[in-house]
Design brief:
Rossmann fold, globular, 214 residues
């Protein structure tokens, strides 16, 4: 297997982005989240003929150079507004994700990547969740907000993610464990424990050796 992909879906406040970033660092690969959305947003604003020219170049070159020029954001953003669908934007995101899966090893956080890459043998799909007590504490500490605001951020962000997933997977339920290869509870396993479980899943499913000679 030339390359592998880990997709991570996660509840807000579970540490999913941190897990993805540390996992990517362990394997020496990229972790993509908002950079995919940023690039898709840029591409969705260009003329169709121009996009066709870019699309032809994809066959010769990955999106890596384009994505690498965008800033890396290590914090997870709360979604406090209602989800509004944008089918064209999602099409561009899906195209970027599918191209990445064929051209490089990486971790992709969110963006329905598990659905976009469903059935591909070089993909390990992960869902990370945790009890509200755990996610609330993380959000309160990270954003310096009281309990009530933290709860509101979690509720609205998870609702946004559920609506997003349902829209672009034709009604599939975001937290359904059968959508994923492995479902983890970050409150009991911890960040490092989740990473270890994903590494084991990679070794068993995709035959990728443990990183750093583990």
């Amino acid at each position: 297997m030339d390359n592998f992909i880990v997709t991570i879906a996660r509840g807000y406040g579970t540490g999913g982005k941190e897990i993805g970033s540390k996992l990517a660092e362990a394997y020496g690969i990229q972790c993509y989240e908002r950079r995919i959305l940023s690039l898709a947003s840029q591409l969705s604003g260009i003329e169709e003929d121009e996009f066709k020219k870019i699309d032809e170049k994809i066959r010769e070159k990955s999106w890596k150079d384009m994505l690498s020029k965008l800033p890396i954001v290590n914090t997870s953003e709360a979604k406090l507004h209602k989800f509004v669908s944008d089918d064209l934007l999602f099409e561009y995101q899906a195209k970027i994700i599918r191209t990445l899966s064929k051209t490089e090893s990486c971790v992709i956080v969110g963006k329905c990547a598990d659905y976009v890459l469903k059935g591909m043998p070089n993909v390990v799909s992960v869902y990370i969740e945790a009890p509200r007590e755990y996610t609330r504490e993380r959000i309160m500490e990270k954003h310096k907000v009281p309990k009530e605001i933290a709860d509101d951020m979690i509720t609205k962000t998870d609702k946004y993610r559920a609506d997003y997933y349902a829209q672009y997977t034709h009604g599939n339920y975001w937290t359904n464990p059968v959508n994923y290869d492995i479902t983890l509870n970050s409150s009991t396993l911890g960040i490092d424990g989740c990473i270890a479980m994903i590494e084991h899943c990679l070794k068993e499913k995709v035959k990728i050796p443990y990183p750093n000679g583990k």
